[in-house]
């Protein structure tokens, strides 16, 4: 899992720092990228990075100030032309967008008035304090921030997974097999018996 900072500036872009966007690259964990905020020209920053737009499957928007969302309609439109290697019909994969009230209207109207017809589906999830996403790997929780308008920080938690007993290393260390050792081996295979 890697964090890639696509923009760390605020208010307006500078030559050195673009406005807000962070890519959470989870290529090993689930072959996906999640974006946090999509400031203006985020798609240009992505072109300069190793992150592919087609891998972006979830977008989390912290708040509705323009330096955090003005790149979203352009990003979604360009993504229309980037078929996923995993979709069976050549279309880009569907995407989920989490964010404050008003975000859905902003995106839908921007796409509507610029006559964009997306080939993929967007699912909008309105953020609220607490758990906003959970699957068997990750939990995402939203925390309200004090910023003058509705604003959230997002916490991404990876769930614990049971490890595997490294039998060969235990034997190398001279540890004698006990009940836990055998139950572990029975789950995996019983060739050590
Ligand atoms: Zn702001």
TrEMBL record:
<dbReference type="Pfam" id="PF23023">
    <property type="entry name" value="Anti-Pycsar_Apyc1"/>
</dbReference>
<keyword id="KW-0378">Hydrolase</keyword>
<protein>
    <recommendedName>
        <fullName>Metallo-beta-lactamase domain-containing protein</fullName>
    </recommendedName>
</protein>
<keyword id="KW-0540">Nuclease</keyword>
<dbReference type="InterPro" id="IPR036866">
    <property type="entry name" value="RibonucZ/Hydroxyglut_hydro"/>
</dbReference>
<keyword id="KW-0255">Endonuclease</keyword>
<keyword id="KW-0862">Zinc</keyword>
């Amino acid at each position: 899992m890697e964090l890639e900072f696509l923009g760390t500036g605020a208010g307006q872009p500078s030559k050195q720092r673009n406005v807000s966007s962070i890519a959470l690259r989870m290529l090993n964990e689930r072959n996906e990228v999640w974006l946090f905020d999509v400031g203006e020209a985020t798609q240009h920053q992505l072109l300069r990075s190793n992150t592919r737009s087609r891998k972006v499957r979830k977008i989390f928007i912290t708040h509705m100030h323009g330096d955090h969302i003005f790149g979203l309609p352009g990003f979604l439109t360009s993504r229309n032309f980037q078929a996923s290697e995993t979709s069976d019909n050549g279309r880009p994969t569907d995407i989920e967008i989490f964010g404050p009230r008003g975000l859905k209207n902003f995106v839908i109207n921007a796409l509507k008035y610029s006559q964009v017809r997306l080939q993929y589906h967007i699912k909008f999830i309105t953020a609220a304090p607490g758990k906003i996403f959970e699957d068997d790997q990750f939990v995402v929780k939203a925390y309200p921030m004090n910023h003058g308008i509705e604003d959230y920080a997002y916490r991404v938690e990876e769930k614990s997974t049971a490890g595997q007993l490294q039998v060969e290393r235990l034997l190398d260390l001279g540890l004698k097999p006990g009940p836990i050792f055998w139950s572990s081996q029975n789950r995996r295979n019983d060739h050590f018996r």
